[in-house]
Design a protein that fits this description.
It is built from eleven helices and 24 strands. By secondary structure, it is α+β, with helices and mostly antiparallel strands. The chain folds into two domains: about 300 residues, no CATH class; about 90 residues, Roll (SH3 type barrels).
Length: about 475
């Protein structure tokens, strides 16, 4: 099943839109789609808005190859002509795997002034109309069952025809010419069974026993197969035929996905075998994955206090909203003329009440789930929230050896994680300074490196490195309590 869609979706009860976790993933995906599209101060004249499309840009293959854009790596800021998502899922043969490909397609808006002889001439500006490269959101769906994918890859050939249209400007001052260039792309979805020992993952059946469920590796490869423009063309010309902010939403309502950031022990080997390029998949619940050109954690969420997208998720909503309010009338006029999305941001910010702004100032959330018996009248961040916790004397067994403050350990951090500095700490020895209980109930060791010249200074003002117990190896038989 395929679909090219503009505008609001109609929810299919059996489709990707109805999958648990999809709405949350879609909200984040929309932020990814427009990240960097138009940055504060939202004016065309701003230098940062003259060179855009920073993430997930798939350019036509001949142009990309000619300019050396053929590498891998998960960073979507590196442009290419292809991207690949690989992730793990479990599910029966009749489970449907949904893939929604989303990207922006450039559209040129050129105002044309009316001439005395009745003709028209392209102009940089006519009244409030500015020449600008807008972006049109596009979506394509590809769906197949697990059984169908195991029988062979499923391919979706995408063709977006170019067009040109003209609309009159208000007041008979002239007209606007809109132009989109043709775009050709291909999405291929395939599925393979994982090799032992990860072939089967234990899942409890209705009788409380253990029932094996196959583990599969899903691969989605997206390519820009267009042949235009020529390799000698400028990047601006190549962007007219590009998939911009390209990403995928995946859902398997009859099964579940497995985290690649924190895979369970039975899937670690298969997770290491997943090779992602120019994009990376993260969970949104168990049945939905967002594969984004911007690196995210599992289960990313848009803060409920945020009233709307500001196209810069690295910024703080409160600061960016207040700065937008400081724009002069002339600057706001230019921003509104630049793009309808910029006008919508201005309208939203100008209509915010003091209470709306106050909600952006900050909030504290208790990460402990309600109804689990851990709630307390004492705030979760207060040391008295759990008087049973004693970092100075608490102990955790690692490989049968008690580890507490004063224990020596060798660091063995997970090298597939979210901290690239861990690779420099692998194998180093450290001294445990405290045993800490995280707000989610997990234990961590606060340590100082034994060969760090600043270790004594770090001990003095409490600057430590933190590792889970299973990321350490005890070097002695334990320190007496």
């Amino acid at each position: 099943m395929t679909r090219d869609r503009k505008g609001p979706p109609s929810v299919d009860a059996n489709g990707i839109d109805a999958a648990p976790g999809f709405r949350a993933a879609l909200a984040v995906a929309d932020s990814v789609l427009y990240e960097g599209y138009l940055l504060y101060p939202y004016r065309r004249s701003s230098p940062k808005n003259r060179i855009r499309w920073q993430f997930g840009v798939l350019l036509p293959e001949p142009w990309a190859r000619a300019h050396g854009l053929d590498g891998g790596g998960v960073a979507g800021s590196a442009e290419s002509w292809w991207q690949r998502t690989e992730c793990l899922l479990t599910g029966p043969a009749d489970a449907l795997v949904h893939c929604r490909l989303r990207f922006l397609h450039l559209r040129r808006r050129t105002p044309e002034e009316l001439l005395p002889d009745g003709g028209h001439r392209a102009a940089d500006r006519v009244g409030d109309a500015l020449t600008f490269d807008e972006a049109v959101p596009r979506e394509f769906d590809l769906t197949a069952s697990v059984a169908d994918l195991l029988s062979g890859p499923k391919r979706l050939d995408l063709r977006v025809p170019g067009f040109e249209t003209i609309t009159p400007l208000p007041g008979s001052a002239g007209r606007t010419r809109w132009r989109e260039w043709p775009l050709l792309a291909r999405a291929t979805m395939s599925l393979t069974a994982c090799a032992p020992p990860d072939l089967h993952t234990p899942v409890r059946d209705e009788h409380g026993g253990q029932e094996p469920v196959p583990l599969f590796k899903l691969c989605v490869r997206v390519e820009n197969v267009g042949r235009e423009p020529s390799p000698e063309a400028s990047r601006d010309e190549a962007l007219r035929h590009a998939l911009i902010a390209c990403h995928t939403l995946l859902a398997v309502p009859g099964g579940r996905f497995v985290s690649l950031l924190e895979p369970p022990a039975w899937a670690e080997i298969a997770a290491r075998d997943c090779a992602n390029a120019h994009t990376y998949p993260v969970l949104s619940g168990d049945q939905v994955m967002l594969s984004s050109p911007i690196l995210l954690y599992d289960n990313p969420r848009v803060a409920p206090e945020s009233p709307g997208d500001l196209h810069d998720a690295a910024e703080i909503d409160e600061i960016l909203s207040l700065r937008t309010l400081t724009l002069t009338d002339a600057e706001k006029q230019e921003a509104r003329a630049t793009d309808p999305r910029a006008a919508a941001i201005l309208d939203r910010v100008e209509s915010m009440t003091p209470d709306d702004l106050a909600r952006l100032h900050g909030t504290t959330r208790d990460p402990r789930p309600e109804g689990t018996g851990v709630e307390s009248q004492v705030p979760w961040w207060d040391p008295e929230a759990d008087a049973s916790v004693r970092p100075e004397t608490d102990c955790v067994e690692v490989g049968g050896v008690p580890v507490r403050k004063g224990s020596r350990v060798r660091l063995r951090p997970r090298l597939r994680g979210t901290d690239p500095q861990d690779m420099f700490l692998d194998g180093r020895t450290a001294l445990v300074e405290a045993v800490l209980l995280d707000v989610d109930g997990s234990r961590h060791f606060a340590v100082t490196l034994e060969d760090d010249p600043a270790a004594e200074l770090n001990q003095w003002y409490g600057r430590y490195r933190y590792f889970a117990p299973d990321e350490t190896e005890p070097l002695d038989q334990g320190v007496p309590g």
